[in-house]
Amino acid sequence: MKLHDLRRDYELAELKREILNDDPMLQFQDWFTQANEHAGLPDPTAFTLATVNAAGQPHQRTVLLKQIDPDSFIFYTNYQSEKGRDIDANPQVAMHFAWLVMERQIRIEGCAEKVERDAVDAYFATRPRASQLGALASAQSAPIAERAELEARYQQLAEKYQDQPIPAPENWGGYRIKPSRFEFWQGGRHRLHDRFTYTRTADGWTIQRLQP
Questions:
Q1: Annotated binding-site ranges
Q2: Which residues belong to the active site?
Q3: Residue 157 lies in a domain
Q4: Were both Cys, which of 37, 71, 171, 186 would link to 15 (CB 3.0–4.6 Å)?
Q5: The pTM is what?
């Protein structure tokens, strides 16, 4: 199989300036609603989070969006994970939503900060009990000899907190990403894709079309 023979054209839609919302958060919510209702799109909340560590090495991984506020996006993780250590060193991050069955992508750049502790505790209480135990059992990103060790720790915690509320770990919580730049991408025929950026200014947002 030759990779350069794997190709398709993009023909589902066009993106025009006159149909864009002036507020990128509202434009995101509009596209997200459509993605969430699309029967062929699994995990619409999944996005690639890019961080950079203190040495300048970039890292990427897929995480799940858990909340959309009027001015920010929130996800949850272990603060001592690789992503948590990266954000401590450099809070500038990037997000990428790839809704390719809809021929759409969204890129977002911004600054991450920790979510308030009371909000973390409130969210943790809504998680399924198995997920709560998993967060408590795993020292995320730390080496481990074998899976059996992790499963044993999980079982010990399940027994310890049997019929009891499970507390949120102190080293676990949320990050709020406040965006400064968006790019909305709609695939186009002949690789003439539609791309629009929103850049934050002192007066609001500047919208610009980019060449593909």
A1: 7-10, 61-66, 76-77, 83, 105, 123, 127, 131, 140-141, 185, 191-193, 195
A2: 191
A3: no
A4: 186
A5: 0.93
